[in-house]
């Protein structure tokens, strides 16, 4: 495999890594928590831009058909990944980094002279995906979910989290999620977390004065109502 073929493959793997890991984790009933999301996003974007520059730099090198296909799919993959990263992180910094990777992928594809039909289809779909991104990023940045109380179970295998969901002008909600902390898997920069069980949903501000406690390891009591956790 030639140098530029290898670099395009690395770019494709970088773009595919988090979305594919998230989908696989969700299929197994888990979610991925990323430590230092903004720092990792900045570092990953810097590496992505550097590799893109190296691929575009002289001397020109004929790439394989497989590499041309990967390059054609790269803008679409990074554009779809933008939305995954934004909804996971709810961060403008992470969203901006994801958008920068999409622009790098589009520039890379724009310099390709092979597989023109696939190239133009990919670029067109990428532009359509990116058009509403600013509105989505703006809307998500106003959504704030704050854990206002944590109540561990007697044996600390579970933890009830009271969440204040502030949706700006739309109002908000109060949720109580039970996290199964004993089933979490620590992977250093990533953490696999068992999908929480939402046992309560109420109006915004309902967390104020909420009476919540564990009656047993499997029974949570919220304002006098018992919820079985199994």
Notes on the structure:
The structure is a single chain. The protein is α+β, with helices and mostly antiparallel strands and 230 residues long. 49% of the residues lie in helices and 25% in strands. It is built from 6 helices and 10 strands, in the order αβαααααβββββββββ. Strands 2-3-4-7 form a 4-stranded antiparallel beta sheet, with no helix packed on it. The chain has a 3-stranded antiparallel beta sheet with strand order 1-6-5, covered by helices on one side. α1 crosses α3. The longest helix has 25 residues, at 3-27. The radius of gyration is 22 Å and the shape is elongated. The model has no long low-confidence stretch (mean pLDDT 88).
Number of helical stretches of at least 4 residues: 6
Ranges where pLDDT stays below 50 over 5 or more residues in a row are none
Determine the N-to-C terminus distance: 51 Å
The share of residues in extended strands comes to 25-35%
Largest sheet: 4 strands, antiparallel
Order of helices and strands: HEHHHHHEEEEEEEEE
* Helix/strand/pairing category: alpha+beta
**Rounded average pLDDT:** 88
Provide the gyration radius in Å. Answer: 22 Å
Percent range of helical residues = 40-55%
The tally of strands reads 10
Strand order of the largest sheet: 2-3-4-7
Shape: elongated
